[in-house]
Amino acid sequence: MPELPEVNTFKKYFEGTSLRQKIVDVSISDDKIIRNISAQEFVNRLTGKSFSASSRRGKYMFGHLDNGTFVLFHFGMTGDFKYYFEEEDRPKHERFHILFEGGGKLGFDCPRKFARIEFIENLKTYIKELGLGEDALIIQEGDFIEMMNGRTTSIKGFLLNQKLLAGVGNLYADEICYQTRVYPGSRVNKLSVRKKKEIFAAMQSILNTAIDRTAHYKDYPDDWFWKWRTKEGTSEKGKILVEKIAGRTTYFVKGWQRKYM
DNA sequence: TGTGATGTTGAATG
DNA sequence: GCATTCAACATCAC
């Protein structure tokens, strides 16, 4: 379930399993998951190298190869890593795996195939051309607020726009709006500076808490919204409504979350 | 059987 | 340039 906290957990997993081991082969069962070069070229670029580090920006995770090049792992809706040795542990929807010298395999599981893997020569150039915004946990409050200037989009649309702010997805956007008692369709230009600061603080606290719990939803605080966010009904704060906002299914609590329109 | 799902992109529209 | 909506991507679960 890859939003920023999930991807952060994948990154930790990657670092705990796949660094500093020579890549002896890459086995690709679905060519289309490698987006920017051919599958064969991808194999050639990785074989013989090893990963020395990794980094993350929003939902984009980068494996750093020891020759100064990079591999992008974008998990789409259903991507996941699984490191394994035995054939019986291969994930069900594995699209490719990287075989290391010691016999370990880093499998990439992805039922819905929305994931994107790329080989990258220059990371800075790549991020710049992509127009990827600053990471939601790194951006400063002042920049966060400044980016809202002159915009009329909904707060949800703002939080989801990866070119402005990288990392927040549909679930966490709803959580942020719930905790700050803002209707997700509220217009950013109608929010007070004070409210914007509140939203910024909630965003960081929610993402950090989620990371602390390794993106394991069941461990999230009891007063979070996510567990109500499955169907229309009534939460302790009021009636839950569902609307399409910024093109995404959005849950919120009527009355609890104020409209700034 | 039809519908929608945690993400992103590109096209079309205003 | 900005905002919105829609379709597409591919598969699975309800």
Description of the structure:
By secondary structure, the protein is of the alpha+beta class. The chain folds into two domains: 4-130, Alpha-Beta Barrel (N-terminal domain of MutM-like DNA repair proteins), CATH 3.20.190; 134-253, Helicase, Ruva Protein, domain 3, CATH 1.10.8. The chain has seven helices and 13 strands. It has helices at residues 4-17, 39-46, 123-130, 141-148, 155-160, 170-179, 193-212, and strands at 23-28, 51-57, 60-65, 70-74, 80-84, 94-100, 105-109, 116-120, 134-135, 165-166, 233-235, 238-245, 248-253. The strands form four sheets. The protein has a four-stranded antiparallel beta sheet, with helices on one face. A hairpin with a 2-residue loop joins strand 2 (51-57) and strand 3 (60-65). Helix 1 (4-17) packs parallel to helix 7 and helix 6 (170-179) packs across helix 7 (193-212). It is elongated and about 60 Å long. The chain starts with a helix and ends in an 8-residue tail after the last strand. The model has no long low-confidence stretch (mean pLDDT 92). It binds a DNA duplex (14 and 14 nucleotides) through residues 1-3, 6, 32, 59, 74-78, 93, 110-116, 150-154, 157, 160, 162, 169-172, 244, 246-249.
Radius of gyration equals 20 Å
CATH architectural group of the largest domain: Alpha-Beta Barrel
Order of helices and strands: HEHEEEEEEEHEHHEHHEEE
What CATH first level of the largest domain would be assigned? Alpha Beta
SS-based class: alpha+beta
Which topology of the largest domain does CATH recognise? N-terminal domain of MutM-like DNA repair proteins
How many DSSP-defined strands?
13
Beta-strand residue fraction: 25-35%
Summarize the biggest pleated sheet: 4 strands, antiparallel
Number of separate structural domains: 2
**N-to-C terminal Cα separation, in Å?**
31 Å
Number of helices: 7
Q: Let me know the average pLDDT.
A: 92
Low-confidence stretches: none
Could you give the order of strands across the largest sheet? 1-6-7-5
Oligomer: single chain
Assign an overall shape. Answer: elongated
